[in-house]
């Protein structure tokens, strides 16, 4: 018999809604915080999130709230599904005591502080890091919402927190592994979005399958170099949150980040692309964080550099390609 928890999910975007629905299907008592007034009215009436997860009828047991404190109060598990740039300010609105564990679903690195989502959560809510976990892996929301078979990783410095979450989230179509490398899992989840933009640019320019596979491989090398410097464990890069999510996001047609790259390659301006998207492609902000962080840590990240220049300095994608290909030749070393 599964233990039943009281759960609050912060953020009714595509992933927050999907996970709230999954947890409700798993038998838990779940409240989903919906920020937008119109969406709140609509979702209560139709049980469909027509902005972020259209076409999926949500569980009859799922409850909705527009109050972050009501959502977070007296919960065994709080799930945070807020894009990183809005995370700190949203959490600051919570004034109730946090009694249980907090699970982060966000994939990004904060611009000014270089904090990972779990660090923002720990500091802002004033809770110890062993009550925080991060869930990450090759997980398109739509496929999980359609109950297609999916695997993922939940990472925490505290084994009990990871196992509690593993049991609460797992079901016949969602298989959750545990990890103790929260830094590695979050770094992989954030940085694969930069490589997905790069892969989208490459595909949008029709550079071919060789180029995409090369980008994924050298992208993983870049992610690993920075990740190891920041305390990640090497084996995490070869796992679901690492190569698993990188492969998915750099090749999958549902990726918002890859779509940004495809549209950039077709000549659209990043400002116009972002204005046209309700969903948040985290890789755009994360590119800025990682570009600056790599300079501070003196880590060579050529793909990230070029994506930064394309997104923030208006560099032409073909010029970025030329500069990437014309760097000094070297021996292949996964970490160089
Ligand atoms: N969608 C996926 O397939 C998926 C899978 C795994 C992880 N993630 C990650 O989960 C996190 C949440 O993404 P998502 O896909 O659920 O969201 P989304 O991109 O579908 O929706 C955007 C979300 O941002 C919120 N938002 C917009 N403006 C805001 C503001 N000013 N203040 C506070 N919130 C604001 C919206 O209410 C909505 O919840 C992201 O870090 C994402 O990378 C997404
Ligand atoms: O649609 P994306 O590019 O934000 O990617 C979604 C998930 O992170 C894939 O695991």
TrEMBL record:
Picking any one GO molecular function of the record gives:
glycerol-3-phosphate dehydrogenase (NADP+) activity
Name the UniProt key words of this record, in alphabetical order: Cytoplasm, Lipid biosynthesis, Lipid metabolism, NAD, NADP, Nucleotide-binding, Oxidoreductase, Phospholipid biosynthesis, Phospholipid metabolism
Q: Where is the Glycerol-3-phosphate dehydrogenase NAD-dependent N-terminal domain?
A: 7-161
The top EC class, named as a word, is: oxidoreductase
Task: Tell me the active site.
Answer: 192
Q: What is its EC number?
A: 1.1.1.94
User: Which parts of the sequence bind substrate?
Assistant: 107, 256-257
Provide the binding site for NAD(+): 11-16, 86, 141, 256
Named in its record, the pathway it takes part in is: Membrane lipid metabolism; glycerophospholipid metabolism
Share an example GO biological-process annotation for this protein. Answer: phospholipid biosynthetic process
Which Gene3D superfamilies does the UniProt record give?
Answer: N-(1-d-carboxylethyl)-l-norvaline Dehydrogenase, domain 2, NAD(P)-binding Rossmann-like Domain
Annotated positions binding NADPH: 14-15, 35, 52, 107, 141, 256, 280, 282
Q: Which GO terms describe its cellular component?
A: cytosol
Protein localization: Cytoplasm
User: Which residue range or ranges hold the Glycerol-3-phosphate dehydrogenase NAD-dependent C-terminal domain?
Assistant: 181-321
* List of residues binding sn-glycerol 3-phosphate: 107, 137, 192, 245, 255-257
Name the catalysed reactions: sn-glycerol 3-phosphate + NAD(+) = dihydroxyacetone phosphate + NADH + H(+); sn-glycerol 3-phosphate + NADP(+) = dihydroxyacetone phosphate + NADPH + H(+)
* UniProt cross-references to HAMAP family, sorted A to Z: NAD_Glyc3P_dehydrog
Q: Which family does it belong to?
A: Belongs to the NAD-dependent glycerol-3-phosphate dehydrogenase family.
In UniProt terms, what function does this protein have?
Answer: Catalyzes the reduction of the glycolytic intermediate dihydroxyacetone phosphate (DHAP) to sn-glycerol 3-phosphate (G3P), the key precursor for phospholipid synthesis.
Q: What is this protein called?
A: Glycerol-3-phosphate dehydrogenase [NAD(P)+]
């Amino acid at each position: 018999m599964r233990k039943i928890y009281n759960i609050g999910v912060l953020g009714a975007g595509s992933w927050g809604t999907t996970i709230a629905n999954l947890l409700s299907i798993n038998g838990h008592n779940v409240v989903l915080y919906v920020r937008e007034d119109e969406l709140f009215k609509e979702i209560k009436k139709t049980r469909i999130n027509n902005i972020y997860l259209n076409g999926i009828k949500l569980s009859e047991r799922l409850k909705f709230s527009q109050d972050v404190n009501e959502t977070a109060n007296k919960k065994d598990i709080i799930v945070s599904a807020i894009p990183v740039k809005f995370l700190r300010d949203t959490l600051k609105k919570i004034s109730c005591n946090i009694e249980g564990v907090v699970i982060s679903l966000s994939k990004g690195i904060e611009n000014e502080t270089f904090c990972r989502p779990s660090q923002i959560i720990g500091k802002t809510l004033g809770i110890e890091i062993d009550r925080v976990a991060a869930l990450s892996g090759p997980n398109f929301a739509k496929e999980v919402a359609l109950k297609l078979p999916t695997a993922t990783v939940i990472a925490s410095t505290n084994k009990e927190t990871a196992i509690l979450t593993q049991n609460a989230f797992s079901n016949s179509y969602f298989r959750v592994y545990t990890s103790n490398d929260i830094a590695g899992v979050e770094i992989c989840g954030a940085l694969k979005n930069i490589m997905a933009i790069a892969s989208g640019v490459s595909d949008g320019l029709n550079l071919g399958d060789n180029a995409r596979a090369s980008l994924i491989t050298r992208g993983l090398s870049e992610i690993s170099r920075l990740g190891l410097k920041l305390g990640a464990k090497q084996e995490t890069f070869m796992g679901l949150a690492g190569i698993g999510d990188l492969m998915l996001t750099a090749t999958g047609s549902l990726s918002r980040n890859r779509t940004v790259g495809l549209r950039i390659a077709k000549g659209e301006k990043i400002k116009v692309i972002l204005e046209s998207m309700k969903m948040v492609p985290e890789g755009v902000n994360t590119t800025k964080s990682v570009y600056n962080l790599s300079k501070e840590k003196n880590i060579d990240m050529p793909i990230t550099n070029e994506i930064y220049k394309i997104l923030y300095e208006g560099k032409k994608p073909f010029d970025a390609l030329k500069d990437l290909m014309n760097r000094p030749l070297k021996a292949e070393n996964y970490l160089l």
